[in-house]
Design brief:
- This protein is mainly alpha-helical and 85 residues long.
- The longest helix has 34 residues.
- It is rod-shaped and about 60 Å long.
- 6% of the residues are buried.
């Protein structure tokens, strides 16, 4: 197996752990109901964008799938080493 680029590994770890943009948009939506801060409204518009949410969902899904694959490969290699005895 080819060695992984450390920056890619760091990105996948972070992407798999972050919360969905939809949750952040919901929290910002609740904030702007109380005070109409222009910065918060701008952030809400960016986070509530369906294209941005779809991209975020796809990135988190890819990262999660990749990390699950790595765990399965590690488990297989661990078990393959014990089966040879």
């Amino acid at each position: 197996m080819q060695e992984d680029d450390i920056s890619g590994h760091i990105w996948r770890e972070a992407a798999a752990r972050r919360s969905p943009l939809a949750h952040d948009a919901q929290a910002l939506g609740e904030l702007i109901e109380h005070d109409h801060d222009p910065a918060e409204i701008s952030y809400y518009e960016e986070f509530a964008d369906p294209d941005a949410q779809a991209l975020d969902d796809a990135q988190r899904s890819y990262a999660g799938q990749y990390l699950r694959r790595l765990r399965r490969l590690q488990d297989r290699s661990k078990h393959a080493g014990t089966d040879r005895d």
